[in-house]
Specification:
CATH architecture: Orthogonal Bundle
CATH class: Mainly Alpha
Largest sheet: none
Number of helices: 10
Number of strands: 0
Low-confidence stretches: none
CATH superfamily: Fido-like domain
Helix content: 55-70%
Structural class: mainly alpha
Order of helices and strands: HHHHHHHHHH
Number of domains: 1
Length: 246
């Protein structure tokens, strides 16, 4: 662990302790924050996948089951799918349920209600993504079993092991669609199970996020985990600061 990551993880732990020692905000404040987090999560995660609905439209769709004229029905389905997957994720957090293959399939099936033919199923074909070649489909089941059964080192910080899991899942790319959305949802499950706040990758975070994914892909022969760990630590600190300010 280098100095930058170590400093960030110490700051995470310090702010987490400070938050735990604070009085809980009024229920209406907590509810408002959670509602805003839901809308922003659904909007920002889906726009990363090309969804055309604006932030205001996403809120309208979720609040009133509205249909936005001129926008694809599939975009509306993506909104409900991500909302449904978030609800399932919340139940996994409550139950402290370890993420295995079954949980992954269920999250994926809840999310891809617009593509039922591939929901909850590993892909059965190979593909290229912007010059990157994910795991061949013949090896997906083996690689996924290894991923979900692996135990992080006892000394690893939650942020370190969560970032590594996300990178491995992205590299395997087990599903035909929805890998990024499911992967980012699992980040938040793992964080919340460790009493850390869930995060949102905002528009301004995307260059660093994609760079971190590329750094792990290792096309230059130097596979790196730390860029994602640093980014995730920074995102957690941002959310802790928001909660401390409530």
């Amino acid at each position: 662990m280098d100095e930058q990551l170590g400093r960030l993880l110490r700051e995470v732990d310090r702010k987490k302790t400070e938050l735990n020692e604070r009085s809980r905000p009024a229920p209406e404040v907590v509810e408002s924050h959670q509602e805003r987090f839901l809308y922003e999560s659904v909007f920002l995660n889906n726009t990363m996948e090309g969804n055309q609905l604006t932030a205001d439209e996403v809120e309208l769709v979720l609040k009133e089951d509205a249909v936005i004229a001129g926008k694809p029905l599939s975009d509306h389905m993506m909104v409900f799918g991500y909302r449904n997957a978030m609800r399932l994720a919340d139940s996994y957090v409550e139950q402290q349920r370890r993420i295995g293959e079954y949980e992954l399939f269920m999250l994926h099936a809840r999310m891809l209600i617009d593509k039922p033919e591939m929901a909850g199923e590993y892909r059965a074909y190979n593909l290229m993504i912007k010059g990157h070649r994910p795991t061949s489909h013949e090896k997906i089941a083996q690689k996924m079993a290894q991923l979900v059964e692996a135990q992080p080192p006892e000394y690893a910080h939650t942020i370190e092991s969560t970032a590594f899991f996300h990178l491995r899942l992205a590299k395997i790319h087990p599903f035909g669609d929805g890998n990024g959305r499911v992967g980012r949802l699992i980040i938040n499950i793992m964080l919340e199970q460790a009493q850390l706040p869930p995060v949102i990758i905002r528009i301004e975070d995307r260059p660093a996020y994609y760079a971190a994914l590329n750094a792990y892909d290792g096309l230059d022969g130097n596979r790196q985990v730390q860029p994602m760990q640093v980014l995730l630590a920074e995102l957690v600190i941002r959310e802790l600061d928001i909660l401390l300010a409530l």
